[in-house]
Amino acid sequence: MAIRRLLRLCIFVFSVLSAAELQAAKFSRVVIDSGHGAQDNGARIGYIYEKHLALDVARRLERYLNAQGIRTVMTRTTDVFIPLEERSELANQTRDSILVSIHFNMVNYAGPKGVEAWFYNEEGRNLATFVQEEIVSSLRTANRGVKFARYKILRTCTRPAVLVEGGFISTKEDLKRCLDPKYREALAISIGNGLLRYRKS
Ligand SMILES: [Zn+2]
Questions:
Q1: Does the predicted TM-score (pTM) go above 0.85?
Q2: 66 C-alpha to center of ligand 1: Å?
Q3: How many CB atoms lie within 10 A of CB 78?
Q4: Which of 15, 46, 92, 165 makes the best surface tag, with the fewest CB within 10 Å?
């Protein structure tokens, strides 16, 4: 009897420990991708390039996550060109990682504004939902929703992945916000908080 009780206790302790481990292991690293780079400027209005705004937000996100004890890997830290499949491959090769790709939007007609989060696989949808909710509630920006896309970087990524479009530089109101370092800092922090909430979920 005593042995059986001990065995049951062992099984109980083991299952509690492995459940805790599983939760903590949801991700231990964040691969942060700044959209575009070098000859690929991304969206552009005059001398304002999407690639620079994206790198700035990526750096802010890196600082924030590191301060929270989360390890990060950047796809680029300077103005260089990296093929999309190499960006997702970095996440695929990084154990227990998730991928966050940062972009800004542009269209050639007036009006659209706000933030959207794109995903490809089911876990990506889950991740994108947390990130989008956090951005919209803390930045009070227009919610353009969480959407499915077959973007190459998402399609070729085997890790949970989200692509954030942080505002329309083609719309005056959004452009003004995107040029404000305070907005970019708040955007980075809210993306980070979305990731942390996803981790706890
Ligand atoms: Zn882009």
A1: yes
A2: 25
A3: 9
A4: 46
Query: What is d(CA 165, CA 161) in angstroms, rounded to the nearest whole number?
Result: 13
How far, in Å, is the centroid of ligand 1 from the Cα of 189? 20
What does residue 119 show for φ and ψ, rounded to 5 degrees?
Answer: -140, 165
- From the CA of 49, how far away is ligand 1's center (Å)? 10
DSSP string computed for 18-47: HHHHHHHTT-SEEEEEE--BTTB--SEETT
In whole angstroms, what separates CA 199 from the centre of its chain? 12
**Looking at residue 24, what is its pLDDT?**
39
Tokens of 164: 């954030």
User: Ligand 1 is a single-atom ion; what residues have CB below 5 A from it?
Assistant: 35, 42, 103
Residues found in the chain: 201
Contact between residue 165 and residue 118 where contact means Cβ atoms under 8 Å apart: yes
Report, as an integer, the average pLDDT of 82-98. 97
Q: What spacing in Å lies between the alpha carbon of 43 and ligand 1's midpoint?
A: 6
Q: What is the pLDDT of residues 10-40, one digit of tens each?
A: 555 555 444 444 443 489 999 999 999 999 9
Domain spans, the chain: 26-200
